[in-house]
Amino acid sequence: MKRLISSVLLLLCLLSTAAVAQEKITLSGHVKDEASGEGLIGASVSVQELPGTGVATNEYGFYSLTLPKGNYTLLFNYLGYVTASKSMDLTTTQKLDVGLGQHATALKEVEITTRKEDNNVRSMEMSTLKMQVAEIKTMPALLGEVDVVKAIQLLPGVQNAGEGTSGFYVRGGGADQNLILLDEAPVYNASHLMGFFSVFNADAIKDVQLYKGGIPSQHGGRLSSLLDIRMKEGNNQKAEVSGGIGTISSRLTVEAPIIKDKSSFILSGRRTYADIFFGLSNDENIKGNDLYFYDLNAKVNYTLNDKNRLFVSGYFGRDVAATKSFMMDWGNATATMRWNHLFNNRLFSNTTFIFSDFDYAMGSKEEESEFTWKSHIKDYGIKNDYTYFLNPKNQLRFGLHVTYHNFMPAEVKPGAKSYVNELKLNSTSALEGAVYLSNEHRVTQKLTLDYGLRLSSFTSMGPGKVYLYDDAFETPVDTLKYGRFEKIKQYGGLEPRISAKYELNEVSAVKASYNRTLQYLHQVSNSTSATPFDVWIPSSTYVKPQLADQVAAGYFRNFADNMFEGSVEIYYKWMDNQIDYKDYAEIFLNERLETELLRGTGEAYGAEFYLRKQKGLLTGWLSYTLSKTERTVPGINNGNPYPLRHDRRHSGNLVLAYQFSPGINFGANWTYSTGGAITMPVGRYEYNGKTYPVYSERNGYRLPAYHRLDLSATYEKPHNEFKKYSGRWTLSVYNAYARKNAFSIYFRENEEDNTKTEAVKTYLFGLMPSLTYNFKF
């Protein structure tokens, strides 16, 4: 590691020396929203006199361009905003901050993405999808609750976890193979109400980006995808209050400058109120029950000077479900403190301190069975990231990440008169680290490469114990005990990443990528929906890190003066050390969980088609995915390949939004997918007077096909610039034609003939209307 860091520093010194020798001038600064002061991520800065020369702003709106001395016209472009033009006489190093104003048109014909018009052709990004929160808010929503995660489920290559749930699968990967970051802090359970809503309040979100492949070298730890969510910074120009009153929840957001142009804050909260209606009920079985969730987002930023800026942000959310005899609650807490530092006009650094905690508790209130069960996973981390803008043709990224994990799978404490036994499963800790280096290199005007290398390591540590087993790996014969911070097992590996883009002409390009990823944490779950009982465990003596190699290639093209953008991508993914359960596995409160796990390989491949209209009164997209994912694990299905539960051969989505008039907007989403794979009983036998089922091969049957239509209509009184208050009504209809989509299937004896078994389909939602009122002043 020391050798790698020394090499990086030496390379930077050589590159800096070369740049000075050429006597070039550096121009740098920030691109911001003129009205709010928010930094614009991915804004384009180009040079009119040098076609093909330009750069995009980073995650904090910062850019840097190094050019020969001369007179230039710089164009600052961000889709949905008015392009700014600045004439510059570059003779000395300069700093230029630019504010962009949004387009103002009578019918709000504003493009629906926050990218440059031809970004899908010009940028290096492939297998990457970006959504604007304003767009997400116009889409129909379950019970009126706008949901970032449900929106990305409508994109190609992304599958939902089930009817109405916010879990998702990307390109055949498992739910635990998605890295979800909120302001750089990991979120381990992104679900409210057992998965029906996500923890992300759209009012507090600024940017949403999903990487399905070609994951940048600075990110790692998951095999399948990266969902990078950034919170708003708060308006540093004026105070604003916004919110909404919906069918199941209400929201309120306050943002304002602390010191204008220098410091601001945002505070955003929401809460459901089913428990309030329970309290008003005359039914004694309902009265006194609790069922609600709440969350709070907060962020403060402060500009110390031209070279230093601080950000502090946090998320706190909780679910509570309780009756008179039983209770459970679970929630997330994250906190990040970030320091942006500009060493010079070309070297930008970001240092982040991270805390993340997912915990849950449940218990019985009955005296004879009273108990409290607690579990958690906590992270403490630091990231030190650097961006070096060498010149318009090379942009280097490098850094160091370290995370300390603490795992407590389960601790059960009984009541004073309870028959429940006290239990504490093996708690452990781990240290995960990585260093990385990458370069985005514009080789020619048509060819651009992005190549990098990530070196990761993982050390499982005590306190803890490791069982030693007999040859059958069933009965423990000895136990090894480890003290605090004592090394139990260590893993590591290199993760190369490379992607290429070749522009065929002004409107089309081909792209390709390869990346290797390692995953050291594993989720133990027997449910497709997100539940608080999912337990995270580290790689250990018997559980090796998961590994994946993915290759992808795509063709990208724009049509009709960038009104339409289209793409076709194909991918293939190999996965090793994949975990699955033995038949009839016992995973609930199992101290020797490793004896129930089997390891094998997996593969996933497919093709994704995407057509998007991003201008005009009618906007939206059409996507279709043809895919297959399967796993081969010795000891399961006689060693033959079998599909995973989330394997769906065909899936398609149509998303439309139509601006009917200045104040009326209509939206429609239609989604279709083939049914997920399940294991079914195919027979039964009797033994000693008892009947036992005989099951099919693993996931050998399919649920019925899934399809659903959602509709919405929004009315907003035309804005009057002299009035500070504005309101908007949104009517949503979820499952408009009342399709009874299967949530699950269970089997029971036929009531008329107990020699027969019948399948029973359960479903959750019929036609579900909702009404939401949103306001802002």
Automatic annotation (TrEMBL):
Keywords: Cell outer membrane, Membrane, Receptor, Signal, Transmembrane, Transmembrane beta strand, Transport. It comes from the Bacteria. Residues 144-220 form the TonB-dependent receptor plug domain. Residues 1-21 form the signal peptide. It is a multi-pass membrane protein. It is found in: Cell outer membrane. Its main location: membrane. InterPro entries: Beta-barrel_TonB_sf, CarboxyPept-like_regulatory, Plug_dom, Plug_dom_sf, TonB-dep_rcpt-like. PANTHER family: HEMOGLOBIN AND HEMOGLOBIN-HAPTOGLOBIN-BINDING PROTEIN 1-RELATED (PTHR30069:SF29), TONB-DEPENDENT OUTER MEMBRANE RECEPTOR (PTHR30069). This is TonB-dependent receptor.
